[in-house]
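Progress note, project year one: complex with zinc ion.
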Amino acid sequence: MAYDKYRKDTTNTVKANVPEGVDVTNVEFEGPYVVIYTKTLEHFADDGEIIRRLAQTLRRRVIVRPDPGQLSDPSDAEEAIRKILPAEAEVTNIWFDPAIGEVTVEAKFPGAAIGKQGQYLTQIKKETRWAPEVQRTPSIPSKTVGEIRAYLRMSAEERKDILRKIGRRINREVGDGENWARMTTLGGFREVGRSCALLSTKSSKILIDCGVKFGGQDDATPYLNAPEALPLEQIDAVVLTHAHLDHTGITPLLFKYGFEGAVYTTAPTRDTMSMLMIDYLKVAFGEARKAPYDTSHIRKMVLHTIPLRWGETTDIAPDIRLTLQDAGHILGSSSCHFHVGDGLHNIVFSGDMKYEDTWLFNRTCDRFPRLDSILIESTYGGYHDFQPTRREARDNLKEIIVRAIERGGRIIVPVFAVGRSQEVMIVIENLVAKGDIPKTDVFMDGMIMEATAIHTAYPEFLNTSLRNKIFQKGENPFLNPIFNQVENSEMRREVLTMPGPIIVLATSGMLNGGPVMEYFKHWCSDPQNTIVFVGYQAENTIGRKIQRGWNELTLSDKGKQITYPIKMQIETCEGFSGHSDRKQLLEYFRNLHPKPKTVFVGHGDEAKCIEFATTLRKKYGLTALVPQNLETIRLA
Ligand code: ZN
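Model obtained:
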């Protein structure tokens, strides 16, 4: 009842605060938004101030949508839109989403489609009643992005129901009494993998990350059976820092076991993690292992995901507000700031983060409005964890490639699909363009190109100089003709027999399966060839064994065990990490503003967590704690 009264009050507030002549037909809570339906969309369009003022009064994000009864027929609307938009916009696609009354125009030149002061958008609204959105045509089409958008459109009605349920939940009435906040550590403490923490208050429960830990007989999951986390359906929301599976891989399992709440993350994280999860299921199937969930749970997760932009503050529970900020680690990666209660506590979960400008991303955000405590990653927080800078990494890679090309051999670079591979591509492109290495064909095998395509679908999540290069100057380094996608096994066979020098970027990054194994098996016995490690090789992986200089390896090949002698050159090029090294972590704390009272150190091997916490205490006088998994700590 309290909710219905709140909704009625909100409707009255909206009606009282819009100018005369503005017709409000309905007001709904959809997810974290107040959605206003109107027959006079153009009034809102003419006066952008109305929405801003309403958002301020309601202390909620406000969206305005056309009343469904007013919309013109999509085919008539499309004809009208094509007439309105100038030819120089180069429209590539137009699609309609009747559930939210939105028409999306995909154009090569969005600026031209929007027009001066949005004149064409205003005209579309007036003539068709649809609410127009303009998207830039991605320079490399992504299958994943296309499929997810199509699926969301297809499931629009179901999604609306989900958002209204979530809206009802966020706006529920909560009891009086003393407020408190605490954190429970469910995974990724004194270890790397299965990152998961629970933030709970008197009224709400939020899960931050829900990852898998690879290795061993079975992949390990967070301690979701801890009494603090149960029952799962009482969790309000899951907030995901970034797409890597050690932070997200178990999220679909929550939906298998009754969780019905929202997942908050950035749109590129939603798309990238879906791609990685589907691949995770494929790999499990290929190895005849039982997967913890199936594709129906991934789809359910996608429908429950509410994408946020960096810097937007959103109510995700009756007493918790979330703001995502750039973490600089991979595409869409975020540090998550939670404002609990009315200033009761402010905590940041750093996620994996990079405090250095990279070729793809800006460095992580070091400014927050308020900050009482922070959970920081410490992958490279140990006393000796210093890494070369990006510039040094470029020079090292140049020398390694020059040596390998002089030998005339082939070069294998094992990479993860997301993050490092795009950086390696940019550096190779740059080395060729500057004439620092001879022009050499680069073949990419695995999901690298698809991951790259997702990057170009979200230019606003790239760093400023790369974005300008691609979209202002029209120079997309990923589209350089030196890059070739290995499309199928036939083409792979062809590449395998090619003479050097050629460069192959292939997944997986630690040689635990994936197409990289084929290249390694074929080329490892020839001393002319080179393998270059650019990423972290975890203990017990094949990558680590090769890097340590094993003379031979016994690998299974179509069911047979074959011993491969390793005579190829082994090189390691450091400095491509998406994690801050010790120097960068310390610099982050020097610049972090305001300074937190308490630091929780996690996401590192036990010794590194302890070493980094010790340094924070000694150097900055901070209270630095190193919780184990399954602790509950009172925050306020
Ligand atoms: Zn990561």
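The pocket of zinc ion is lined by residues 242, 244, 329, 352 (CB under 6 Å).
The domain at 71-137 is CATH 3.30.300.20 (GMP Synthetase; Chain A, domain 3).
No further modelling is planned for this target in the current period.
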